[in-house]
Amino acid sequence: MTQFCHDLRNLKEGLVIDNVKWNFQFYFSSDWKFLAICLGFNSAHSKNFCPWCTIDKSQQGDLSKEWKINKEIDKLVEQNNYYKGHIRKPLFDMIPLNHWVPDELHIMLRITDRLWSLVIAELTEYGLFNDTARKIIVEEMKRIKVKFQFWQIQESKTWSYTSLMGNDKIKVLQFFDLSKILSRQRANMIRNLWNKFYELYIKMKDQKTNAEEFQNDAKNWLTLFLTPSEGIPNTQGFKKGLYKPNDMTPYIHVLVHHVSEFMTIHQKWGLKSFSCSAVEKKNHQQVSYFFRKTMKDGGRKSKSSAIIEILEHENRSLFYNYHNVSLNSQKPHKIHIKAENN
Ligand SMILES: [Zn+2]
Ligand SMILES: [Zn+2]
Predict the structure, then answer these.
(1) Which superkingdom is the protein from (predicted)?
(2) What is the DSSP string of 130-144?
(3) Which residue from 66, 91, 126, 79 is spatially nearest to 2, judged by alpha carbons?
(4) How much distance in Å is there from the Cα of 103 to the middle of ligand 2?
(5) Tens digit of each residue's pLDDT (9 = 90 or more) over 242-273
């Protein structure tokens, strides 16, 4: 790792090839966990959660506040804990913080997860998360062509459910009919919030989106997300709102306060260029292969580690692909030949 960072630092000074000097710009994009590790930053659940600005959790719901990137990587190089929440020396100190780009895919995945779990929490709160509701949810998922199941964890008796892939999450976000499990009025309210988030997601990936407009739309969306209740519960005229600042995930803060800024800085490329979806897909393929084919490092006879098995498998596939070798070898057939007794 030290050597790698050393090489990166050298590369940043530029490279002369045939009397032409090449300059390099580095960018970093990953999911939250990996980004936090590489920055030497604490977890997303802590009070100081934002890698880019100095907000703390109690300020999340304050809609009047504007947050821009206000940390500098050089300050962290000088002093690893210069900002609250930073605990170790950043690994890639040659990359300025405005080149650590949040990933649009993970913004969509994690915020959709949150929106979904808030609906489940609401059903649970009203004692409606029962076998009937679970059956309806599974049927509705079937209708929108998403494979989905619930199962109960033995010890804790809590219910777990299928973790969906990105494209299935988008189907749920767009098409899941909430009125099947919630009152018509409640369903409409939450559906509207989901639709507007889907629109933001599409705009976020579109290079032509105007950053300022996006910032506005995102702020309006957060205002909607934080719709307060009106009146006194269980009395006439009570209007139940949506969610509380504590229900926000760090990705919502990033969506509302930093995405538009990154759009402006990196407009040349568009945020989609920094998307992790290709890496994520590869990870998914490797994980599936791990569970289907390898000995999961547990087989006594396998001599190599699962990672090496996966890499070797990929290497073979590339070789076959490159040399046009067909992989569908025919299964052996049994042929019965009747002896004719003439
Ligand atoms: Zn991920
Ligand atoms: Zn921030």
Answers:
(1) Eukaryota
(2) SHHHHHHHHHHHHHT
(3) 91
(4) 14
(5) 999 999 999 999 999 999 999 888 877 778 77
SS3 23: coil
| Residue closest to 171 by CA, chosen among 143, 192, 193 | 143
Residues 6+ apart with CB under 8 A from 217: 196, 199, 200, 203
Which ligand has the shortest distance to the CA of 66?
Answer: 2
Q: What is the dihedral of CA 52, 263, 13, 16, to 10 degrees?
A: 160
- Cβ atoms of 85 and 41 closer than 8 Å: yes
Q: How far does residue 240's CA lie from ligand 1's centre (Å)?
A: 34
CA–CA separation, 97 vs 80, rounded Å? 14
Paired residues of 239 in beta bridges: 230
Residue 193, token pair as written in the block:
């919030």
CA distance 274 to 267: 11
Quick one: the chain helix, strand, coil %, rounded to 5?
50, 5, 45
Instruction: Look at residues 178, 159, 263, 175 and name the one whose alpha carbon lies nearest to residue 215.
Output: 263
pLDDT digits (tens, 9 = 90+) for 169-190: 999 999 999 999 999 999 999 9
CA–CA dist 58, 62 (Å, integer): 8
Domain-by-domain residue ranges, the chain?
2-99, 104-274, 293-326
Q: Say what the ipTM of the complex is.
A: 0.81
Ligand 2 centroid to Cα of residue 189, in Å, is 28
Which ligand is located closest to the Cα atom of residue 65? 2
